[in-house]
Write a structure and sequence with these properties.
single chain; mainly beta; Lipocalin; 6-stranded antiparallel sheet
Length: 158
């Protein structure tokens, strides 16, 4: 089993962290500018790509070093994140509330955006053939007079 297989990764608040599966100890943590509310995350062999409210970022999977961080006007959470590795360097596709964005995975440069004018401001189901995709799923676990608990599960399809 490789060293990477003995780790897991979390994104919460403005922080991305790598933890040891056996002990739960933090191996590294990286603070980002702004919030990652309801973050989406995908992993490849070398990178962690994470997106949240108004931002996307790329970190080195082994060390947590920040490779780039991009502010994206209009990007909200939750969002769906796909990494298409068939494009040299990788292409990121992000979807949220009726909006689509594309970034170059090497630099975070915004390649294009599409507001799908006239389509409404709805959740977008995004699937990019042969891409690594993170699709957020939300479930209300409990509700009370003054509060609701929502659990967000982020699944990654290889």
């Amino acid at each position: 089993m490789s060293e990477k297989d003995q780790r897991f990764y979390i994104a919460t608040g403005n922080r991305v962290a790598c933890l040891d599966k056996a002990t739960g100890e933090v191996i590294w943590q990286t603070d980002l500018d702004g919030s990652l509310n309801y973050a989406s995350m995908v992993l490849d062999d070398e990178r962690i790509l994470v997106s949240g409210h108004k931002r996307a970022a790329c970190l080195d999977r082994a060390t947590g070093a920040l490779r780039w961080q991009t502010e994206i006007k209009g990007l909200s959470s939750p969002n769906t994140l796909a990494l298409d590795k068939s494009v040299p360097g990788g292409q990121i596709i992000l979807s949220c509330g009726g909006l689509l964005f594309s970034l170059w995975a090497e630099t975070g440069e915004l390649l294009w955006d599409n507001g799908l004018k006239g389509w409404g401001y709805n959740h977008i189901c995004l699937r990019v053939p042969d891409a690594i995709t993170s699709q957020p799923k939300h479930q209300v676990i409990s509700t009370g007079k003054s509060s609701t608990t929502v659990v967000t599960e982020n699944t990654q399809d290889p």
